[in-house]
Amino acid sequence: MRTPSALVSLTIVMAVTTACYGGFTGFTSDRVVLSNGNIQYKVYANFDAVGLPSGQSWVFINAYSHGSLSGTMHAVHQDYAVLDGEVGTWHAGPSVSAADRDFDSWVTASGLASSAGWGTTLDPGWAQGGIVGDINNGAGWVDATPGTANIVTGGRMLLMQVVRTAANDSVYTAKMAITYKISNTSAAIQQGQFQYSIGVPAPGAVALVGLAGLTGRRRR
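The chain above was modelled as a monomer; its predicted structure follows.
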């Protein structure tokens, strides 16, 4: 069985908006180099306890209005389902084997991707399963098991996994909105939107940033 390499892991924090939502603080992405050389990103929605009553938890409901802002996602897939004439889908669960799951790109509303626990439905924004290399603009995904609350644990909820080749690991930025609520209450559903980024800046871009900083220090 192929397993991810733990040699390289990077957390990128993206809270890039001035909006403020009770509990929802933005997205983070964890970066891992896999044993086959591909790059795996896990994107999480992050929450704090602001507005959360004692003894209650946040419950994730759905993600929606995904939209690319810059770059290309370049996602690769390990499942072999065919939808809309393309091989590979954004489904997890039974469409990809347990051995291949870490090497596949998928979305989730439950924080899980196992065959029994995926519990996710793609909304109509996906055209027959979506574009293989990217998530459709305007697409979203929703909890398919509303009778079982998707409790946010450890302050974050996994929303997607994106796997790319090392050659295509350039910076990609998108926006996404979510809905969530307080557990075990009739409190109103809350909404929030932030941006997230995956990828590594090109060496030339990093050098330019460093040069700009050096020039600024010299001027002062």
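The first strand starts at residue 4 and ends at 14.
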